[in-house]
Amino acid sequence: MSRPLCLALAQAPGRRPDDLEGFGRHASTTLRLFPQTQLLVYPELHLADDDTRPLEGSSVRDSAEPIADGPRHRYLSRLAADLQVWLCPGSVSELGADGHVYNTAVVYSPRGQLVATYRKVFPWRPFEGARPGREFVVFDIPQLGRVGLSICYDAWFPESSRHLAWMGAEIILNVVKTATVDREQEIVLARANATVNQVFVASVNAAGPSGQGHSVLVGPEGTILSELPNATPGILTAVVDLDTVDNARRFGSFGFTRPWSQFLPDDDPIPLPLYQGVISPLTWSAANNRGQKS
Questions:
Q1: By its UniProt entry, which InterPro entries does this protein fall under (predicted)?
Q2: Is the pLDDT of residue 29 over 90?
């Protein structure tokens, strides 16, 4: 058996918030070039101008809308339905009901439904003024598998990817807008997060001048499967078999290492003073959470 998922990861520069039609043309052209695409993904804050200043007090804040209301939401919903694709337009600038601005990844189904919203838990402080989110988010593509959402700096915190994998994510979409010199370190982190959690990781960075590019797709054994090695705009396409995740966890990475099978039921819990909690052998396995959803 196999569960193939056809990806198109758009390494593109930022776009003005009022240029939804331009975004739609880019997405439509991408689907014409790669008609087998099931999941189309764009970088962080792709529809929030090419502004790299902090969110608060910038044009990014000025473009903030409620997540499920307003012209941006209505346009993206229609676009996903018209293209018949799972659409992640990157993250957007969300105006919350509490008056705060959040850096929020959104996903629309091929029926135009808003199926997932994820507020960035780890904003890039002190440079990013977004309010932190409080929940990790996964969503299901029926008959295929489960996808986790992550935004840029989240990847620097291993708790984020670990929790998404524990929730059953088989591929993590890390949408990125990195224009700084540490993109190479982010590639290391993408490989590390994939390796230790045995998941696919798609790290989709903005093209120049918004970002440094170098988008990568990493397999559940930590191997770079495909990449766009520079900052030039482009589309990274790939077909991933999500059964590869099950196989890696069942037989071990490269036939050896099985971190999700580390504990025996009668092992003692391990205290985690940093979190005022424990690692419990009874709740460790990611497979136990495949039926749960945020």
A1: Aliph_Amidase/BUP, C-N_Hydrolase, C-N_Hydrolase_sf
A2: yes
Interacting residues of 149 by C-beta distance below 8 A, sequence separation 6+? 88, 105, 107, 116, 118, 137, 138, 139, 164, 172, 173
Residue 257 phi/psi, 5-degree rounding, is -95, 125
| Residue 51 pLDDT exceeds 80 | no
User: In whole angstroms, how far apart are CA 277 and each of 55, 184, 292?
Assistant: 33, 33, 21
The pair of structure tokens assigned to 69 is 């209301």
User: pLDDT band at 59, cuts 50/70/90?
Assistant: low
How far, in Å, CA of 163 to CA of 149, rounded?
A: 11
> Please, are residues 122 and 153 in contact by the beta-carbon 8 Å criterion?
yes
pLDDT at 56: 47
- In this prediction, residue 288 carries a pLDDT of 57
Contact present, 152 and 123 (Cβ < 8 Å): no
Q: Report residue 183: phi and psi, to 5°.
A: -60, -35
